[in-house]
What does this fold into?
Amino acid sequence: MAVATRQAYRSQPRTGASIRSKPKRRGTLSVAWALLGWWPLTPLGLAVGGGLAALLKWVALPKQDRVLTALALCGLAVEALTLVNVVLMAAWLRVRPLGTNASSLRSEACVPFRTGYRLGWAAWNPLVRIEVRWRSPSNATTEFVAERGRLVEHVTAEVRGTAETVVRRFVVADVLHLSRVRFDRSQASSVAILPARGPLARPDVLPQFVSGDQLGHPSGRPEGDLIEMRRYAPGDPLKLVLWKLYGRTGRLLVRTPERAVSPSAATLAYFVAGLADEASAGVARGLIENGALGNDVTFRADGAPATTRAPGEAVNQVVRSVEARHQSGAGLASFLDEGEATGIRACILFVPSRPGPWLDRVATAIAARPGPVRVFVGVDGLRPASTRARLHDLLVHNGAGANQGESVNVVNAAAHRLEAAGAIVRVVDRVSGRVFRPEDLLAVGMPVVREQGVQL
It folds into this structure.
């Protein structure tokens, strides 16, 4: 039976990795690369075949050794059989229809999803091994699961993103590794991988007040109910003069109104893409889909052409923002200007957990804003950035899939920079759902060593 092997990839994506399709080779190079994949003999197969042919020509036939002749001929026959079997199987997989079940795929990062592609009877050929992996979208793990006697493809994507074409790489080899054929097949299929949400708590809506008559404003500006007083000035209406007080004291005072405000649910929300933004993307998706941002939220993500109020489109913007990591908050200033022009000043930001080019842009954009700003920093676990922890990482190899979490000092560096710009920062652990204040991070795990150059 053919063995559909599971491709081993790192569970943690590479720095800056995304679901974007790999650039295609073009021209003569692409044709040469495709033809080279159909060369059936492996280095081992060439060595074995050349050795058997040399044994037959220069040893067995000149000495008329029937035993060596039989062994050489049998070996060459076995290799020829495996080569023909591999080539025929690869040719059948190359022309076999891929099916129409995967016209539109939508799943969540790190969650296996069924594509509907089947290997067919080729999976039960005992003389070959068939490996299938996705080249586009990248950063995905494939395996075939038995369902009612058939092997069906299941894929697990590591990061969010979208793609319009699925490119599979097929590698067909015999069990002796003497022959192998490699080729790619493309399939028009819309793939959307959403960021994992995790167990997120529902935070309070960011408060914002506009002019109204429900609440008294602490600044006491002249708006609202007539409960304050001041000295009379030329031009004040005489109907506001306190005549009884004037008759008793001789002081001419007038009533003045207190400023009043009303709470407003209108809020701005912006997602900043960048390195280590996958956890923040999951936090943003969870709050959007749960309605925690309110019913009157104007949302935009890096790389999006326009703002949106629809939760579905907001989630799609977060997914597509993986392609705009090089911008990293470049559109935040203009987004805040548009919101302030409509009277909305309160803003919620979702930012990566690691400092980068986005940090100065975001801090500069929010420093000059009069409205309140709340920042959510998403992490997948936290680890203390102590000397002992760094020495342990150097001496002990935890494997590619070990989840060490984000360094507390790294998160603190970004959080304190944003707090200095006037933002209210909250660190959200997507794994546990806990919410931390920056000053509470020092209590996470082992004590944190204050490193030179990092403000804690």
